[in-house]
Automatic annotation (TrEMBL):
PANTHER family: GLYCOPROTEIN HORMONE RECEPTOR (PTHR24372), LP13728P (PTHR24372:SF74). PROSITE patterns: G_PROTEIN_RECEP_F1_1 (PS00237), G_PROTEIN_RECEP_F1_2 (PS50262). Residues 411-664 form the G-protein coupled receptors family 1 profile domain. It is found in: Cell membrane. Gene3D superfamilies: Rhodopsin 7-helix transmembrane proteins (1.20.1070.10), Ribonuclease Inhibitor (3.80.10.10). It comes from Loxostege sticticalis. The chain crosses the membrane at residues 396-420, 432-453, 487-509, 521-541, 561-584, 613-635, 647-667. Residues 293-304 have a biased composition (Basic and acidic residues). Residues 293-350 are annotated as: Disordered. Residues 320-330 have a biased composition (Polar residues). This is G-protein coupled receptors family 1 profile domain-containing protein.
Length: 734
């Protein structure tokens, strides 16, 4: 048994050496090794002849601290070097010349800086026909900085993924020839120097996904073909498409960045104008491209502008480039062209390194010359939630929103001003009207914020989209929208219930809603509204998903439940309002038949019925369209996109905010009375106050004129008279 345990421990903690034939060479793999220094002695002790090793792999070496790189020169056939799971390996000395080396991989280890690989291919041997590295993979280490010239190499692919890199300094890849470069997953990477990629002659693919960069430099990226900046919401601005001469694919984070690529003339008008001038100059250099159209040339550039553009082109010619770098596939709509190389593969190193760059020239394939703007396959494409349009979208909508804002703000400010300055005893209706007016005023402020952003960013919203949608302004606007909607729903329900109690139980004073009870109810309504409006700020849905700052995007179950709760609250409130108003109407007579068809009673009921229908109708028009299209979207069947949904936003959603101050306050007798009292206290417009007094003074009665006493009425007529007074009181409340 003891012998068996010894063998087991030996297999677990001592090097396990496996040999296999691989392309005529030897592959050595040390698994779970206890070595502390990787050198020739360690390999000899394991029974290997180092001069035959082509592939060396160290897997799970918890004690490895140092690599004797000078001993690697004793492995002339070494093609691949691989180390993984070596947490104590902090640094690797500069590598010597290893002409046969093709892959250098150190992953999931403790490296804190990039090894210097600039001398790997300094000496060329006869069996080294392609002097470049196929892959340099340093993924999953603890690298924080890029040492100068450490990656001055010729490599097809360099991966620095999942490290701790904080910045890329200037000329970090100067004189390097790297085809594909990746920084994916460096969550601490925030700064890229303007010259971070300058001097890299062959960069074709760049991956900066899952970082925190806020700016993308363009020097050194002129020949980039694939750009990946996914899951990087911190990137505010994307450079003009004209800065990337050969870009074919762009995988980005924000929809509005693809809008910038789709509309370069609006994204950067100055750069677009320069592009047109460059096109004109290239057209001049190419000569007569189309015999049929060029005979009638319509454009003639001033000599001064031609001289300036010529100087720009000559400056570009002075840069150390190759025809392969500036050449474009003749099948693409680009503005520089060259004969395509048929032997290249986009997934491999693009061309052998040419050290003779003394006389570079740009070649133009005039037969393939086209004047169309460059086309890039860009994702994420603009969709229904994020179209390439302004906040309001249409001109008539832009004008209409200001009318709605004026009605909502002026009406509700007028109501608040009168109710809050009234010196009479505070009643429940006045108390509730203050809350309703404030909630509707918030809706007007929300629309005002959208309208201001729309005016400021007219014609080029995607240039302002980041600052707006991901800034504080959009969060405030979204909060105001949801808060005002929910508070308005709650307040309207309470107002309706209060009137139902006041009219249905007019003779039971103990059943009235008191100020204290109304205050407690409204405190609950405020808390509910604040919670519902605050949930998108803590990750339940999102205000930044659209330019109108509404939580309309549903990415998970939590978002769906939240949005469903908003619609359910609205539905319950509308049902409550309808039922209460029907009960109120029935309690007041239901058509005048109880009063023998008397004209006054019938007219009063018609007025009440019309006002009830108006109140219910405005609520229905405000909530029903938004709820209907919202529910269909939650069910996975969206019937309207954001572009058309903005019509609902301007004409239906704020309908209550515009109508409520008039229907519930301004058009009532009580508000007019309070308004005149406010004017009387100011001492202004006395003629208006006197006119109001004359219009509202009641005719003489038995109490005001005792010489003409009222006749006695039979009991039945008296009861009818009291019921009619109750009905008229109900009419006054509406």
């Amino acid at each position: 048994m003891a012998f068996f345990l010894f063998i087991l421990q030996f297999n677990l903690f001592i090097a396990v050496i496996r040999r296999s034939s691989c392309d005529g060479g030897v592959m050595v793999e040390l698994v779970r090794s206890n070595i502390t220094v990787l050198n020739v002695k360690a390999l000899h002790d394991a029974g290997h002849k180092v001069h035959n090793i082509e592939h060396l792999a160290i897997i799970d070496a918890p004690r490895l601290e140092h690599i004797a790189v000078e001993d690697l020169t004793k492995m002339p056939k070494l093609k691949s070097f691989y180390i993984t799971q070596a947490p104590l390996l902090r640094r690797v000395p500069p590598l010597p010349s290893l002409p046969s080396l093709r892959t250098f991989i150190i992953t999931t280890s403790g490296l804190v800086e990039v090894p210097n690989l600039s001398h790997v291919h300094d000496t060329k041997t006869g069996n080294s026909s392609i002097p470049y590295l196929q892959a340099i993979d340093l993924e999953g280490n603890h690298i924080k900085r890029l040492a100068p010239h450490s990656l001055r190499v010729a490599a097809d692919q360099v991966s620095l993924n999942l490290n701790l890199i904080e910045e890329v300094p200037a000329f970090a890849f100067k004189n390097a020839q790297i085809s594909r470069l990746s920084f994916r997953g460096n969550t601490n990477l925030k700064h890229l120097d303007e010259n971070a990629f300058a001097g890299n002659l062959l960069l074709r693919q760049l991956d900066l996904s899952s970082t925190k960069i806020t700016h993308l430099p363009t020097k050194g990226l002129e020949n980039l073909q694939v750009l990946k900046i996914e899951k990087t919401p911190s990137l505010k601005y994307i450079p003009s498409i004209y800065e990337f001469r050969q870009l074919k694919e762009a995988h980005l984070t924000h929809h509005f960045h693809c809008c910038a690529f789709a509309f370069p003339e609006r994204h950067n008008p100055a750069r677009h104008k320069l592009f047109e001038l460059q096109l004109a100059m290239v057209k001049e250099k190419c000569g007569n491209i189309d015999q049929k159209t060029e005979l009638r040339r319509r454009r003639s550039l001033p000599e001064r502008r031609i001289r300036k553009v010529t100087q720009d082109l000559e400056a570009e010619d002075d840069m150390p480039t190759t025809s392969e770098e500036t050449g474009f596939d003749s099948n693409d709509n680009d503005y520089y062209f060259d004969e395509p190389t048929s032997s290249e593969n986009s997934d491999q190193f693009h061309a052998p390194i040419d050290n003779n760059l003394s006389s570079p020239k740009i070649a133009y394939n005039c037969a393939s010359f086209m004047t169309g703007k460059p086309k890039v396959l860009c994702t994420p494409q603009p969709d229904a939630l994020n179209p390439c349009e302004d906040v309001m979208g249409w001109s008539w909508l832009r004008a209409s929103v200001w009318l709605v804002i004026t009605a909502a703000v002026v009406g509700n400010v007028a109501v608040l001003m009168v109710l809050l300055t009234n010196q009479s005893e505070l009643t429940v209706p006045r108390f509730l009207m203050c809350h309703l007016a404030f909630s509707d005023l918030c809706t007007g402020i929300y629309l005002f914020m959208l309208a201001v952003v729309d005016l400021r960013s007219y014609g080029e919203f995607f240039n302002y989209a980041y600052d707006w949608q991901y800034g504080v302004g959009c969060k405030i606007a979204g909060f105001l929208s949801v808060f005002s909607g929910q508070l308005s729903v709650v307040t309207l329900s309470v107002v309706t219930l209060e009137r139902w109690f006041a009219i249905t139980y007019a003779i039971y004073l103990e059943r009235r809603i008191s100020i204290m009870a109304a205050a407690k109810i409204m405190i609950g309504g405020w808390l509910f509204s604040v919670v519902m409006a605050g949930l998108p700020l803590v990750g339940v849905s999102d205000y930044s998903s659209t330019s109108i700052c509404l939580p309309v995007e549903s990415q998970n179950v939590g978002d769906g439940v939240y949005q469903g709760s908003l619609f359910l609250t609205t539905a319950v409130a509308w049902f409550t309002i309808v039922v209460c108003y029907v009960q109120i109407y029935r309690s007041l007579g239901g058509g005048g038949e109880k009063y023998g068809g008397r004209g006054a009673a019938a007219a009063a009921e018609r007025r009440i019925a019309n006002k009830m229908a108006l109140l219910i109708g405005t609520n229905l028009l405000c909530w029903a369209p938004v709820a209907f299209f919202g529910v269909t979207a939650l069910a996975g069947i969206p019937l309207v996109d954001v572009s058309h949904g903005k019509v609902l936003l301007v004409f239906f959603y704020p309908l209550n905010a515009c109508a409520n101050p008039f229907l519930y306050a301004i058009l009532t007798k009580q508000y007019r009375r309070d308004f005149m009292m406010l004017i009387a206290r100011t001492g202004q417009c006395n003629w208006l106050v006197e006119r109001y007094k004359l219009a509202t003074t009641p005719p003489p009665t038995a109490h005001t004129n005792p010489s003409n006493p009222a006749p006695l009425l039979p009991l039945v007529d008296y009861q009818r008279s009291q019921s009619q007074i109750s009905k008229e009181n109900g009419d006054a409340m509406f």
